[in-house]
Amino acid sequence: MSDTAYARTPRTTPTRYKDRATWEKEAIQQILDSSWVCHLGFVAPDGAPVVLPTIYARVGDRLYVHGSTGSRPLRAAGDDQGLRVCVTVTLVDALVLTKSAFNHSVNFRSVVAHGTAYQVTDPEELALALDALVDHAVPGRSGEVRPANAKELAATAVVRLDLDEVSAKTRADDADDDAADLGLPHWSGLIPVTTVYGAPEPHPSSPGPLPAHLRGFGHGGA
Asked: DSSP letters of 9-43?
């Protein structure tokens, strides 16, 4: 792994559309920092595949993934050997409509990370990870709320996955109609997809002006 790119491995090299893949750190981290929901995949003890949606945060070349101390992957990740996982993050930027049903597609940005996840048990690292999980969705939020108490910490688990084996794949193209279809009367083009924050809606127990870290919400996309 270089300072600017992650190492290519057989698992992070796609077999189709290789030109859409990148191992550049800046591109991968930008995608990870643009979402807060990932899918955590692993093989359960009974041999069945399991994929769980959950929240995450990136701190440098490391992902912290949130969970409950009662969940299966978190218990397995607490072993010395850790838990082999695959973590994916996907952002949809546009629906791609073409004149033929076959050529319809999606413009997207995605990251796939492979590795061994370990449960975070060090109190200082756990505090850092929990703050990162809160601040990843709402920057500055962790400093504006009550920290977790002992009972809450006992019910919360976080796993750590180092970003060693990771790649990104993107599609950012126009509609790709076959030459033979160009004369057809059907509409083709892009339908952009964005995520937009609504205006914050205060709870009755929170009168008064919005705190500074929330004033930018409801005025743009993510």
From this structure: -GGGS-SS-GGGEE-BHHHHHHHHTT--EEEEEEE
